[in-house]
From TrEMBL:
Top-rank lineage group of the source organism: Archaea
GO MF, one example: 4-hydroxy-tetrahydrodipicolinate synthase activity
Catalytic site positions: 131 (proton donor/acceptor), 159 (schiff-base intermediate with substrate)
SMART domains recorded: DHDPS
Keyword entries, A-Z: Lyase, Schiff base
GO annotation, biological process: small molecule metabolic process
Binding site for pyruvate: 44, 204
Localization per Swiss-Prot or TrEMBL: Cytoplasm
Broad class of the protein's primary localization: cytoplasm
Protein name as annotated: Dihydrodipicolinate synthase family protein
Organism per entry: Thermococcus profundus
Cross-referenced Pfam families: DHDPS
Length: 293
């Protein structure tokens, strides 16, 4: 698995029920555009606002819909036994990878984090992508990621949603140097090209929900050594990533951007998240028009 992975939004109706037709339409669109993977129950998908039953339902529905790309399922929880249950479920339905952020809410030492991931890795066979997102959960150090990767063959990679090129550099050099099959993805659109240059494998980036053509073109240009073109796309993504600074949450930024670009997914978030108002929407509109025309 390499390239552009989309952490999928979860479409909702005005009554907060899951909008299945919009989900089907969006997954079909992303596959036609040529993304390399689709990731359901992601942070962008508001997984913390979904019940365990809804998460399983979405994972099963996604498995039905995703046919031409890699299929990833988020199985994070603050409860280790629930993570094991959800990861086993992802394995049983035939997902290609489970993506697991660290437990959130409770600060944990590295020994506790190692035990958490060890228990999941020992109870399941599905390849696991660690998810380092220190703004929302316990941070994963380079040494912890390395120890897990060298101890468990089914810990297959990491998504780095961390605004640090040095950290990504160290993960690539120290872990891929010892285990070449270990995958390193950025979670930040503005670091997509940087990660590829360092020897990483791609990105799992939220803006690919509404502008996947930019990400796919950058990846193709880089692979085909058309570097001037790759640089131009990288500049566009860097500017487009400012969308996160304009809104109060990832979900609000992405769903407002999608509504501006004409997607059928409604700008509805489940509480406690709220969609930002018209002023924010207009700022996002100006940014999109400046970058995408």
């Amino acid at each position: 698995m390499r390239g552009v992975i989309v952490p999928l939004v979860t479409p909702f109706n005005e009554d907060y029920s899951i909008d299945l037709p919009a989900l089907e339409e969006h997954v079909d669109y992303l596959q036609k555009v040529g993304v390399h993977g689709i990731f359901i129950n992601a942070t962008t998908g508001e997984f913390t606002s979904l019940s365990k039953e809804e998460r399983k339902f979405l994972a099963e529905k996604g498995r039905e819909l995703v046919s031409s790309t890699f299929y990833l399922v988020g199985t994070a929880s603050s409860n280790t036994f629930e993570v094991i249950e959800l990861t086993k479920h992802a394995q049983d339905i035939g997902a290609d990878y489970a993506v697991i952020a660290p437990p959130y809410y409770c600060p944990l030492k590295e020994e506790a984090l190692f035990k958490h991931y060890s228990m999941v890795a020992e109870k399941t066979d599905i390849p696991i992508i660690l998810y380092n997102i220190p703004s929302c959960a316990n941070p994963l150090s380079v040494s912890l990621i390395r120890n897990l990767a060298l101890e468990y063959p089914n810990i297959a990679g990491v998504k780095e949603t961390i605004d640090s090129i040095n950290h990504v550099r160290d993960v690539v050099l120290e872990i891929k140097g010892e285990r070449k099959d270990f995958k390193v993805f950025t979670g930040l659109d503005q670091h997509f090209l940087n990660t590829l240059i360092l020897g990483g494998d791609g990105g799992i980036m939220a803006c690919a929900n509404f502008a996947p053509e930019l990400h796919v073109r950058l990846y193709r240009a880089f692979n085909e050594k058309r570097f001037e073109e790759a640089f131009e796309y990288a500049k566009k993504l860097a500017k487009l990533s400012k969308v996160y600074d304009l809104a109060s949450s990832f979900g609000s930024a992405i769903k407002l951007a999608m509504s501006i670009r004409g997607f059928s997914i409604k700008p509805v978030l489940r509480p406690p998240y709220v969609v930002d108002g018209e002023e924010t929407k207009e700022e996002i509109r100006r940014l999109i028009e400046e970058v995408l025309g």
